């Protein structure tokens, strides 16, 4: 904590020993900003007067200036008399500031940005990304926001804005070097639209697209750059763009090169960065509460923040966790959209990237070895389920602490409750300061007038019971209403609604705030808002248009976001979200018939996603669609929950989504939906009305998800049913998929003759139908059957053909799996040369990009064995330790997936341990592991 912290990257602020200091209205703020701009030089009185009164000073200007100086001295040095001032000093005919080098946020931002550029130049992208992230986190709004109408700050504001854009570009360049090609490409597309004249950004975009396998899009980006530069500047592209285009056209392998390995201090064993979201706005006040909660977290393993909706529980919890820090986490688990208590463990496992596969024991075993803080947010709707699991978690994992937010306590032994209070009241209170900052953000031109209306703001905040959410919603209306109008309107509405449901006065007030915001909407906006609230977890523009069927939805989204009824959460295309409190309010405004109509449209839209996902998850769009379905996960769940009485809709969705559930390890959730669908259509009198293709896919889903869940009895039952469906089906591709699945499980169970027969038939059906994707997977099953039969030459031939078919169809999952199986085949033949090394390295790269972590760990273990048999024992020990450690951290064992081969590999290697190399391997990050993987010796 700095003794003095001056903020100019947004509205002017002063922190003294961490506490906000009152610096007064526009006059003192202008004086302080003018002195900060001078960077320690003396500013004459006349220049300070010009800064305060740019249109001409009043006769009392000099006297008033002295009053501003006195007020600033009291704020900057509250414990020091004016004659002993050390910060704001008189010199000659003016004043100057004497500050520490890091006292001003703009100076810290500049230093961090320079550090980021230095780290980039030194080929240390991780350090560069961290520096740029820290720099950009300092920004709270427009530089010198209090002085936008005063010319003295214009030059410095423009300089800082330019540096901010440079830092954003630098961060993207660093993240690109770290290998995050798909995400960076999407963000660079937005960046180049916003800053089209930055040539280097265009080269970064094209490079990211190329590395993501989108060569055509990379060349299109370069063409766009050429067109923009010609139209806007009348110039041709520079040498950097020209050189990149030539390199892409000849597919220069150097474009895919990873940065040279740089020795850095290894992270602590088990270190994880956590998943806390970056703060998008400044937390106003709350220093006392943060200190109290931090103390409670140290003394108690479970602390629950309680209070009414909108009082700021989540923000306090996240900020507490951020300050808590630690090498492992902290981790945020959002439970607001969860209504099934049986999914609590799975949701926690997903947030922590632990592959529990629906088994809470795996999650507990992984956490038993970790020291971390977990934030469970919005527990109230499943409080009993959360309480039950937290009790088990705390008993089993002695070094795990939990910070929960809920409208009621969990009632767990050892729990410490903290009731979150409203913001402090009064003219100098936190509530007024929050309103002022948020209002200035939506109406910078009116910010100066807020000081004159401070009494009205105090009354408004009091009417809102000083609740943060209510104040945020009120401040958002400052673009269209004055403070006096807001205060009058708020008072009128709260007289009616105060003392609402359950007699909870604060709850009634937050409902009144939402009702008041609702009343400011037009009828058409209300209709759009209630329709959009049918989405769970978020939505994009296309989904909004399809479900609402409104031609004005774009315009309505603009006004609804401006009025804080809808939140923009970023992405390309942009995604939107409606707060849970507002969604619940919207439900109250709809008739039952309207809700049914919207739910049916929503389910139809999810059904369309599922229809496309069937192919997209197994072709070149796989990575993109895995990310898309992750974003729409809550919508898929909501559609299935609302369609329980419509088995045809449930069948359509499950048939397309099961593969996503399988690859992400959402076993329990997938089975929760798939099993009743399969059972219904098996027993239904009108089963012939359901497309057999969908029934086959859903039954495959039941088999593979049950396999992941360890329910072998259900696997056998599902396979028997699958065989009957395939016999009577007239869809050759669906039959081929069924036979492929049967063959794979038959081979694993030792029934190799049946497996070879079914896989061979599947290959022929797929070829006759031109279904190359299915052909690739059928060949993989055929190769697996030959491998288990001991016919290694035929296995190698089938798997090689599978890889070729997978490449033609863009089936990255099959390509990676067949490459791994072919490598195992070569190992069984006693081959450990470069071909096997390349097969596994290629497979590892592709499965990691696809987000398939469990397959990545198994293949990494296999590569370790190949290096071991090559005599590269140190490499092998490092890779094996890295693989096993990564598996431990997510509760997964590669031996469990493949006990026959991988179990034997691990057994051989652990018989000849290299403790030093193994210790080093356990500390490796993914980029460091990737460097070892690509080291072909």
From TrEMBL:
* Any matching Pfam family: BTAD
What's the source species' lineage?
Answer: Bacteria, Bacillati, Actinomycetota, Actinomycetes, Micromonosporales
Reading the lineage from the top rank, the first entry is: Bacteria
Q: What is this protein called?
A: Winged helix-turn-helix domain-containing protein
Q: Which UniProt keywords apply?
A: DNA-binding, TPR repeat
Q: Where are the TPR repeats?
A: 776-809
Q: Which organism is it from?
A: Actinoplanes flavus
DNA-binding residues (ranges): 1-99
**UniProt KW DNA-binding keyword:** yes
Which family is this sequence assigned to?
Answer: Belongs to the AfsR/DnrI/RedD regulatory family.
CDD domains assigned: BTAD
- Residue stretches making up the OmpR/PhoB-type domain: 1-99
**InterPro entries per record:** BTAD (IPR005158), OmpR/PhoB-type_DNA-bd (IPR001867), P-loop_NTPase (IPR027417), Sig_transdc_resp-reg_C-effctor (IPR016032), TPR-like_helical_dom_sf (IPR011990), TPR_rpt (IPR019734), WH-like_DNA-bd_sf (IPR036388)
């Amino acid at each position: 904590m700095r003794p003095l912290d001056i903020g100019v990257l947004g509205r002017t602020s002063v922190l003294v020993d961490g506490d906000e200091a009152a610096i007064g209205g526009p006059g003192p703020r202008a004086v302080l900003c003018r002195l900060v701009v001078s960077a320690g030089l003396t500013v004459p009185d006349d220049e300070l007067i010009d800064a305060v009164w740019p249109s001409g000073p009043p006769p009392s200007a000099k006297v008033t200036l002295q009053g501003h100086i006195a007020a600033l001295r009291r704020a900057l040095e509250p414990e020091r008399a004016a004659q002993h001032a050390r910060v704001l000093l008189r010199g000659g005919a003016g004043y100057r500031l004497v500050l520490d080098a890091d006292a001003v946020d703009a100076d810290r931002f500049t230093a961090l940005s320079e550090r980021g550029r230095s780290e980039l130049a030194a080929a240390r992208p991780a350090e560069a990304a961290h520096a740029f992230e820290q720099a950009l986190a300092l920004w709270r709004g427009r530089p010198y926001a209090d002085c936008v109408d005063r010319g003295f700050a214009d030059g410095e504001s423009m300089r800082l804005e330019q540096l901010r854009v440079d830092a954003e570009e630098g961060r993207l360049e660093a993240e690109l070097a770290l290998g995050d090609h798909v995400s960076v490409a999407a963000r660079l597309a937005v960046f180049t639209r916003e800053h089209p004249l930055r040539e280097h950004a265009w080269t970064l975009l094209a490079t990211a697209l190329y590395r993501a396998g989108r060569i055509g899009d990379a060349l299109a980006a370069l063409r766009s750059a050429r067109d923009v530069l010609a139209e806007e500047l009348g110039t041709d592209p520079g040498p950097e763009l020209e050189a990149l285009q030539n390199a892409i056209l000849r597919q220069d392998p150097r474009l895919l090169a990873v940065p040279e390995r740089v020795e850095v201090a290894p992270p602590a064993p088990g270190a994880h960065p956590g998943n806390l979201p970056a703060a998008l706005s400044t937390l106003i006040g709350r220093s006392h509460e943060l200190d109290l909660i931090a103390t409670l977290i140290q003394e108690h393993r479970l602390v629950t923040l309680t209070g009414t909706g909108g009082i700021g529980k989540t923000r306090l919890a996240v900020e507490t966790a951020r300050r808590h820090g630690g090498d492992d986490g902290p981790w945020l688990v959002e439970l607001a959209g969860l209504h099934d208590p049986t999914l609590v463990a799975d949701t926690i496992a997903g947030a922590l990237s632990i592959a529990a596969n629906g088994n809470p024991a795996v999650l507990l075993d992984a956490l038993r070895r970790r020291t971390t803080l977990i934030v469970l947010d919005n527990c109230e709707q499943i409080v009993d389920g959360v309480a039950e699991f937290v009790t088990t978690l705390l008993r089993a994992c002695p070094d795990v602490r939990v910070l929960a937010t809920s409208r009621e306590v969990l009632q767990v032994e050892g729990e410490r409750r903290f009731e979150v209070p409203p913001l402090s009241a009064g003219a100098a209170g936190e509530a007024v300061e929050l309103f002022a900052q948020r209002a200035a953000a939506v109406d910078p031109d009116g910010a100066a007038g807020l000081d004159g209306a401070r009494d009205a703001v105090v009354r408004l905040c009091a009417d809102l019971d000083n609740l943060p959410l209510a104040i945020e919603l009120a401040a958002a209306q400052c673009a269209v209403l004055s403070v006096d109008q807001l205060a009058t309107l708020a008072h009128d509405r709260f007289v009616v609604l105060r003392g609402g449901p359950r007699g909870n006065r604060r709850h009634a007030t937050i409902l009144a705030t939402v009702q008041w915001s609702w009343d400011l909407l037009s009828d058409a906006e209300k209709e759009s808002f209630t329709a959009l609230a049918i989405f769970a977890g978020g939505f994009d523009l296309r989904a909004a248009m399809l479900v609402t069927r409104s031609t004005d939805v774009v315009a309505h989204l603009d006004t609804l976001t401006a009025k804080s009824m809808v939140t923009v959460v970023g992405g390309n295309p942009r995604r939107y979200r409606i707060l849970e409190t507002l969604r619940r309010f919207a439900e109250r405004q709809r008739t039952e018939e309207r809700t049914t109509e919207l739910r049916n449209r929503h389910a139809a839209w999810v059904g369309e996603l599922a229809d496309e996902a069937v192919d997209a998850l197994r072709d070149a769009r796989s990575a993109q669609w895995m990310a898309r379905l992750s974003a729409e996960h809550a919508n898929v769940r909501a559609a299935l929950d609302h369609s329980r009485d419509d088995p045809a809709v449930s069948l359509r969705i499950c048939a397309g989504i099961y593969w996503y559930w399988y690859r992400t390890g959402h076993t329990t959730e997938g089975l929760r939906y798939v099993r009743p669908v399969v059972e219904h259509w098996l027993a239904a009198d009108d089963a012939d009305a359901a497309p057999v293709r969908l029934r086959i896919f859903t039954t495959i889903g039941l088999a593979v998800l049950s396999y992941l869940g360890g329910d072998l009895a259900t696997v056998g039952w599902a396979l028997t049913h699958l065989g009957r469906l395939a016999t009577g089906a007239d869809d050759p591709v669906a039959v081929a998929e069924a036979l492929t699945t049967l063959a794979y499980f038959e081979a694993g169970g030792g029934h190799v003759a049946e497996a070879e027969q079914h896989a061979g038939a599947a290959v022929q059906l797929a070829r006759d139908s031109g279904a190359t994707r299915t052909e690739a997977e059928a060949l993989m099953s055929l190769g697996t059957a030959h491998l288990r039969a001991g016919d290694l030459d035929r296995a190698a031939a089938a798997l090689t053909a599978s890889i070729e078919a997978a490449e033609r169809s863009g089936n990255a999952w099959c390509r990676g799996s067949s490459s791994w199986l072919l490598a195992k085949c070569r190992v069984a033949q006693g081959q450990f040369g470069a071909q096997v090394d390349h097969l596994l390295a290629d497979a590892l790269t592709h499965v990691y990009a696809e987000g398939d972590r469990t397959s990545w760990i198994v293949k990494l273990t296999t590569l370790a064995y190949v290096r071991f048999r090559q005599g590269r024992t140190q490499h092998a020990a490092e890779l094996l330790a890295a693989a096993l450690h990564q598996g431990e951290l997510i509760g997964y064992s590669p031996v469990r997936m493949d006990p026959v081969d991988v179990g034997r590999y691990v057994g051989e290697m652990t018989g000849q341990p290299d403790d030093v190399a193994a210790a080093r391997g356990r500390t490796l990050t993914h980029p460091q592991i990737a460097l070892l993987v690509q080291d072909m010796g």
